[in-house]
Amino acid sequence: MIASLVPGARAVVRRITELGGTASYQDVQHHFAENSTLRIPPSKIGGTLTSVKAVQRRVGPDGGALLQRNEQARRYRMDDRLVAGLQRAFALAEARPDLLRGEPSGADT
Description:
This protein has 109 residues and is mostly helical. The protein contains 5 helices and 3 strands; from the N terminus they run αβαααββα.
């Protein structure tokens, strides 16, 4: 699933996963505007997650959404079962970045 995401959306999903599957919109905005090597302007965070929206119906448990947004509370939330799986997937991706779209393989060609 994470390989199907564009690099910016993958980074946002990873950040939410690192925070245990729940994060405020402001936390995500701040991280990518201030602390990350991948800069995403605060006004672009929602748009960056467009590719997540495209896959969420087929990935969530029991056909549910991968990433649920509560617009009024401005929070993102992932099912706990998905957080554990995503943590394993991101660990594998760290070991094998060539498996991800938009990531260099590290091999000399």
